[in-house]
Design goal:
26% of the residues lie in helices and 22% in strands. The chain is built from nine helices and 19 strands. A hairpin with a 2-residue loop joins strand 10 and strand 11.
Length: 446
């Protein structure tokens, strides 16, 4: 049973693994299983032979623990881009990060083509203020090449004592020369939800899904409804753009905040009995007010759960560009004093039974931003389908999609997606996808 899972790199599960065995197998199956086990043990013997050869003959005396750790990480990273080994320190750092406060630069990253790729800078952090953008590739850290490092090793180098400087070299599409940024590390206190009144519309931005996200959303909606009278409040804009994801239970809670009933999401592992379904409870925090959700190419994982649930139930109109397409669930499995492994254990499915793995959420209304001149060559960023070794899509229809615009203007006045959402809520503009028709609600399996 998955008690709590992370959908990108901000969540944590502290639990145990239950092992089971099957007895009284038919003889033919038992023989096949024994043969398979025999082949596996031969391969393990091969690993032992290579390990001993490296220990005895390598030009320098290797670190045995480092060899084993690298082998484990190699095994996990060969599965998909999101499975990996975490050292004890990395595991502790993740626990701190999940609580919403940690030391560092303030960027969500993944590994792509041997380089660290920025999924999203976190609002009001040193990286954000220095001008790091979603889609940037970090090629050097303090002059040292990132190529050859694991993601965890690169992250470890970027973390450090508060008020110390770090120099990162960035490769940005549309620029021929590398961009070198000097950033001062700081305590990263993540306020995952921010809100404001846009006249007669409530605007709520969710930057990630950590342990405080639902509470922040609830507080934001309460404050907005206390300031804008119910008869004047036109609705809400929920901004999930460049939100890289986080805790599954928080994505479920945020979705539930807008739904009265129905399935929110299901997770399906290798075995049918591992399927978990999560349903909404009665109680809509907005009391049925219209909702528009903003997504783009940087909206991943938990963000896609929320957008997919509200889109399938026709509770909200999704506006922007196609989302990242990360439809897999990672379980963090502690290994005692030896750290933990992050292992992909399931795919998640929207209420209509659709997996968005490597495809993303297609918005009801697609709106592209106007790009500044220095970004003309990088209108799109790679999605999940663009990651090497990604988990394949299980959808029977359509093809995998990769690449979607992830730019959000710093000035709200230049934000075409936000401004169209506000105009739709106020009735200044019209679109057949807003408000969503309840009669066209997606078929949800019982």
């Amino acid at each position: 049973m998955i008690r709590k899972a992370t959908l990108l790199c901000t969540g944590i599960l502290v639990g145990a693994i239950a092992a089971s065995t099957v007895a009284n197998l038919p003889q033919s199956l038992s023989g096949t299983a024994n043969a398979a086990a025999s082949d596996t043990y031969r391969q393990l013997n091969l690993f032992g032979d290579v390990f001993e050869r490296v220990r005895s003959d390598y030009v320098e005396v290797p670190d045995d623990a480092q060899l084993i750790e690298s082998a484990i990480n190699g095994m996990l990273t060969s599965l998909d881009p999101h499975s990996s080994y975490m050292s004890p320190k990395t595991f502790r750092d993740m626990q701190v990060q999940t609580r919403g406060e940690f030391g560092g630069l303030g960027i969500e990253v993944t590994m792509e083509e041997g380089l660290v790729k920025v999924v999203s800078p976190i609002d009001d952090t040193p990286a954000f203020k220095a001008g790091v953008l979603a889609g940037d590739y970090i090629t050097h850290i303090d002059g040292e090449q990132v190529q050859g490092l694991t993601l965890n090793e690169a992250v470890e180098k970027m973390r450090g004592p508060v008020n110390t400087d770090i120099e990162v070299t960035i490769r940005r599409e549309g620029r021929t020369d590398p961009l070198v940024l000097k950033i001062t590390r700081d305590v990263i206190k993540i306020r995952s939800v921010r809100w404001r009144e846009e006249g007669d519309v409530g605007y709520v931005r969710v930057t990630q899904f950590n342990e405080q996200t639902f509470d922040g959303l609830q507080k934001g909606i309460e404050e907005i409804t206390s300031k804008i009278p119910a008869d004047k409040l036109k609705g809400f804009v929920i901004d999930l753009r460049n939100n890289p994801g986080g805790l599954l239970d928080q994505a479920i809670a945020v979705s539930d905040a807008f739904l009265e009933r129905g399935e929110i999401v299901s997770t399906r592992g290798r075995n049918a009995e591992e399927t978990q379904r999560y349903n909404a409870r009665s109680g809509d925090l907005t009391k049925g007010k219209p909702v528009i959700i903003l997504v783009n190419g940087g909206s991943a994982s938990a963000s896609e759960i929320v957008a997919g649930a509200l889109q399938d139930h026709r509770r909200a109109t999704v506006l922007g560009t196609r989302s990242f397409g990360k439809g897999s669930v990672q379980t963090i499995i502690p290994l005692g004093a030896n750290g933990a492994i992050r292992l992909t254990t399931a795919r998640y499915y929207t209420p209509s039974g659709t997996s968005i793995q490597a495809k993303g959420i297609t918005p009801d209304i697609e709106v592209l931003q106007d790009l500044p001149e220095d970004m003309q060559g990088r209108a799109e960023t790679k999605g999940e389908a663009g990651l090497r070794g990604h988990l394949s899509s299980e959808n029977t229809e359509g093809k995998e999609e990769s690449g979607s615009q992830a730019y959000v203007p710093a000035d709200p006045k230049e934000d075409k997606q936000l401004n169209l959402a506000l105009d739709l809520l106020r009735g200044v503009q019209a679109n057949s996808a807003f408000p969503p028709s309840a009669g066209k609600a997606a078929s949800v399996p019982n």
